[in-house]
Write a structure and sequence with these properties.
Strand content of chain A: 5-15%
Radius of gyration of chain B: 16 Å
CATH architecture of one domain in chain A: 2-Layer Sandwich
Mean pLDDT of chain A: 80
Helix content of chain B: over 70%
Number of strands of chain B: 0
Oligomer: heterodimer
Number of strands of chain A: 4
CATH class of chain B: Mainly Alpha
Shape of chain B: elongated
Low-confidence stretches of chain B: none
Number of helices of chain B: 3
CATH architecture of chain B: Orthogonal Bundle
Strand content of chain B: under 5%
Helix content of chain A: 40-55%
Largest sheet of chain B: none
CATH class of one domain in chain A: Alpha Beta
CATH topology of chain B: Helix Hairpins
Order of helices and strands of chain B: HHH
Distance between the termini of chain A: 102 Å
Radius of gyration of chain A: 33 Å
Shape of chain A: extended
Largest interface: A-B, 85 and 68 residues
Strand order of the largest sheet of chain A: 1-4
Order of helices and strands of chain A: HEHEEHEHHHHHHH
Mean pLDDT of chain B: 86
Chain lengths: 321, 97
């Protein structure tokens, strides 16, 4: 037997799990009465970064805005991850500068060697530029571009997916004989439009769409269909041969006109007004503030409208005595 | 994505119009009207990014009106159905029951 080995008597039978369980429970209860806050509420409170924290790179500049880099080529040489691309050039005064200076932040291991090796202290991996979404020196292969492009592609794909579902279920709704099927296809179309609202950053409207349209209104439709027992009377209620070209043609003419109107919309429209609002106030307050400040009278009037509609619906639908 | 949204809302609106013209079932015609209202909502939300938040505010009022319209319209349909035992719009010739 090797030296220093201690044999511990471990009873293999007759050991109750109760004691260990109670010990664990006691710890839990201890934390219950004296809660230790260990969770960091990240976006609201941020970590205190050490003064020597090595973040993303930052190019130091002279007072006149010129980069301090003299394109000596030491940092691409020492970089262990080989992530710095530097093309030197000379200006008319014979001073060297970096014509191309790109750091691939995906590849960088944040060792800080480039900062240490720099003879003119031009490059810093510092606290000030700690955010990964901060713009990077010579942002050629930076993280920002990659992420933005990927999000763009993804939202385009999702957009076309929802748009296709909406159009297909709209057409199916018009052409199905059974009104129950038509109602269900309408639900699908409305859900797709709700998805599009989310893509268009109208989150609150999307929630309302699901609740009011897909929820309340469609339930009302289905309720009436089933109350009147229309689900299986498949009398052909689609108009005859004359109406098909008429309706289709009119729809196409209308479509052409509307699309012609949208052609007038600029390809790159004006400044984005919505995103700063959403970032400042959040999804609900963005719509709630104008709704309850500028449009509060209209809001009250809609309340009265709903009341009138409710009373009217009850009166009209009531069975005559 | 603005242009695509506007074109999509035009397509949905045209489908709704064609549906109203094609169908004789009053309930399905109502559904097509809801689809048209929704196409307009999509338009308003799409332009609200550039034209101001009022677009989304207006969508809420449109939704309220749509709800009120659905309630009253379906009540009328129920009332007519009691009389004619049908929801075919060919029967709806008289403004009384």
């Amino acid at each position: 037997m090797a030296i220093g080995v201690v044999i511990v008597e471990r009873p293999e039978q007759g050991v109750s799990y109760l004691r260990a369980t109670l010990k664990g429970m006691a710890l839990t209860f201890k934390h219950l009465v004296r809660p230790l806050t260990v969770s960091q509420q990240y976006p609201e409170e941020k970590w205190e970064l050490a003064p020597r924290w090595r973040g993303t790179h930052r190019m130091a500049v002279h007072e006149d805005g010129r980069a301090k880099c003299v394109a000596c080529g030491l940092c691409p040489t020492i970089c262990p991850a080989n992530c710095i691309k530097l093309v030197p050039a000379e200006d008319e005064n014979g001073e060297r500068y970096a014509a191309v200076y790109e750091i691939d932040e995906f590849r960088c291991i944040f060792c800080g060697y480039c900062q240490e090796v720099c003879p003119v202290e031009a490059i810093h991996v510092g606290v000030r530029a700690r955010s990964p979404l901060h713009s990077v020196v010579g942002s050629g292969g930076s993280r920002v571009g990659v992420k933005a492009r990927f999000a763009m592609d993804l939202s385009q794909i999702v957009f076309y997916l929802f748009a296709g579902v909406a159009v297909a279920s709209g057409v199916l709704m018009v052409t199905r004989k059974n009104p129950v099927y038509a109602a269900l296809y309408l639900v699908l179309a409305l859900f797709s439009v709700a998805g599009l609202f989310v893509l268009l950053d109208a989150h609150f409207v999307a929630a309302l769409q699901v609740l009011i349209y897909a929820g309340a209104i469609l339930v009302l439709f289905l309720f009436v269909i089933m109350l009147l027992n229309l689900g299986h009377t498949l009398e052909p209620d689609i108009r005859g041969r004359f109406w098909w070209p008429f309706a289709g043609g009119l729809g196409l003419v209308l479509l052409a006109e509307l699309v012609a109107v949208t052609r007038g919309a600029p390809e790159q429209p004006d400044e984005d007004l919505l995103t700063p609002l959403l970032q400042a106030k959040g999804a609900v307050a963005t719509v709630a503030e104008p709704l309850f400040q500028n449009y509060v009278v209209a809001l009250e009037v809609t309340g009265i409208l709903l009341l009138v509609a409710m009373v009217g619906a009850v009166v009209i639908a009531k069975r005559k005595a | 994505m603005l242009i695509q949204s506007l074109v999509l809302s035009a397509v949905l609106f045209a489908i709704g119009v064609a549906g109203v013209l094609l169908r004789r079932n009053a309930i399905v015609m109502f559904m097509c009207i809801e689809l048209m209202l929704n196409a307009v909502n999509l338009f308003l939300v799409a332009v609200s990014r550039y034209a101001g938040i009022e677009g989304q505010i207006f969508v809420m009022f449109v939704m309220t009106v749509a709800a009120a319209e659905a309630a009253v319209g379906l009540a009328i349909i129920i009332s007519i159905f009691r009389h004619y035992e049908s929801v075919d719009v060919r029967n709806f010739r008289l403004l009384r029951w």
